[in-house]
Automatic annotation (TrEMBL):
InterPro entries: T2SS_protein-GspN. One of its GO terms (cellular component) is type II protein secretion system complex. This is Type II secretion system protein N. Belongs to the GSP N family. GO terms for biological process: protein secretion by the type II secretion system.
Length: 273
């Protein structure tokens, strides 16, 4: 009994253990993070992008919000829509600011994730469809009423180019009018399957050999090559079209192996408009 009383007395005399400084630091960081994600999104846009021409009527906060967006792809005919976002806190563990996003513009609907870092950005699992009216505003071509379908598109962009790209873009084809040098060339395109990948820039065919290019390989439903699109780190687009694709032009008289490249062009990506 005496030993038990002595033990109780010693326990009472022991000083209370204080929390480790690391726990204080963790608590402070969590408190600061909770304040940051509650900041109004409109205030953040005004603070860090005061002359931003793309986002309007911003509501919500960093955790969850919505905004109207517009792109001036055509004079007096901006492409408009809405974007919803939901913060993904676990992406902060990799040093990125991540969001689940939903993009809408009339009949265009896309969903996916984006990750923003100091030296890179990444689109993750982007899927959905881009409606014909949206495509017509992006490129000055005569296009049929068939949407472009995206499945599991992933693209990573760094200062060195596009080190990661995958996913598919499918288009059902149809009558297309392609303007070039004052003329409009008519094509009756088949169903086109596009496969994204990343590849090193090739010095022989590409003026920019710094970094990786974004490659879109075009094939038909049978897996036969139709062409290739390559976007380099300088925003230049290389287009290669095969004999097989050009044979879809009603008045085309060229001859050659179907897989041979007949037409090659290089121009800024913005020139497509």
């Amino acid at each position: 009994m005496a030993s038990l009383a002595l033990t109780s007395a010693n326990a009472a005399d022991m000083p209370a253990r204080r929390p480790s400084p690391w726990w204080w630091l963790l608590g402070l960081l969590l408190f600061a993070a909770s304040l940051i994600v509650q900041l109004p999104a409109a205030w953040l846009v005004k603070k860090f992008a005061p002359n931003n021409p793309y986002l309007q009527h911003v509501s919500g906060n960093l955790w969850h919000g919505q905004a109207n967006w517009q792109l001036g792809v055509r004079p007096n005919q901006p492409l408009v829509g809405t974007v919803d976002w939901q913060w993904q806190p676990w992406r902060s563990l990799t040093g990125n600011m991540g969001f689940a996003v939903k993009i809408d513009s009339r009949q265009t609907h896309l969903t996916g994730d984006i990750a923003l870092g100091r030296k890179a950005w990444q689109v993750i699992d982007l899927s959905g469809k881009i409606a014909p009216e949206t495509l017509r505003q992006l490129v000055d071509w005569q296009l049929p009423d068939t949407p472009l379908v995206l499945k599991n598109v992933q693209v990573k962009k760094t200062k060195q180019g596009y080190p990661k790209a995958e996913g598919t873009l499918n288009w059902a084809g149809g009558e297309v009018g392609y303007p070039n040098a004052g003329r409009v060339y008519q094509l009756n395109l088949p169903t086109i399957l596009g496969t994204l990948s990343s590849e090193m820039a090739r010095g022989a065919n590409n003026a920019s050999t710094n970094g990786a290019t974004l490659h879109l390989a075009l094939t038909n439903e049978q897996g036969q090559r139709l062409g290739d699109l390559r976007l380099d780190n300088d925003g230049m687009l290389d287009v290669a079209l095969t004999q097989r694709l050009l044979k879809t032009m009603p008045k085309y008289q060229g001859k050659g192996v179907d897989d041979s490249v007949i037409v090659t062009t290089r121009q800024p990506i913005g020139a497509l408009r």
